Amino acid sequence: MPKIQRAIVVGASRGLGRALAETLADRGSQVVATVRSNRPTDPRPGAGGIEPFALDLDHAADHDRLAAAFPAGHFDLLFVNAGVSGPDHQRAEQASVEEVGALFTTNAVSPIALARRALPLVRPGGVVAFMSSRMGSVGLNDDGALELYRASKAALNSLSRSFAVKEALPAGRGVLVLHPGWVQTDMGGTDAPLTALESVSGLCDVIAAALDHPAHAFRDYRGIELDW
Ligand SMILES: NC(=O)c1ccc[n+]([C@@H]2O[C@H](COP(=O)([O-])OP(=O)(O)OC[C@H]3O[C@@H](n4cnc5c(N)ncnc54)[C@H](OP(=O)(O)O)[C@@H]3O)[C@@H](O)[C@H]2O)c1
What we know:
With 228 residues, this protein is α/β, with parallel strands linked by helices. It has 5 helices and 7 strands. The structure holds NADP nicotinamide-adenine-dinucleotide phosphate.
């Protein structure tokens, strides 16, 4: 299986992003791990193979800095992991303009904006991955829970298709939209059945299998294709 030699993980301060950066580094990848500040403990302190980079996903100027910081075609993988769950009420009729704006900006619009800006950093045959969720599937929504979060991930899925067909695929880069499973993190909570390590181990295998086969696909951490 082709190796992920160099990767960028966006949103690596904790949870799945941090586990992803650490797992990639443990497997021998050179990882640029973005965090919202240059805190010295983010991610793993002094870890070999991990280079921190200060970036707020919602700041376009940070996208520009990232795009200018590395040579074209330097990375096998750009993984946009950062995300938020939105307001506790999760109800359309209670949502303020500000709540909707913040949720959809961070979960859907900013990931695509960053990916467009940083696409030249990914080598031909490389992969741009977005951390979506099974909850972003319209077809698989059978209980309606967390409706605002769901809608933001459905928007991400839709935007990822536009990005894939307009830019990434014609340039020979693949686009993966990934569901990590229900995972024990600040967002997933302690009842979740999966550890972050179990989830990201699977995600790394799914990405490695997609290298050099450019396509737009929605898969879970076991590689199972999901209904849009
Ligand atoms: N956990 C699950 O069960 C689950 C299931 C499906 C999908 N997901 C998705 O997986 C991704 C990671 O979730 P998680 O469970 O690891 O959540 P988490 O523990 O809450 O971590 C969220 C991460 O996103 C970062 N982030 C949020 N907004 C950001 C911004 N504007 N700029 C830069 N970084 C930002 C956070 O950075 P700070 O530390 O600076 O806040 C943190 O590193 C999310 O996209 C989430 O929707 C999670």
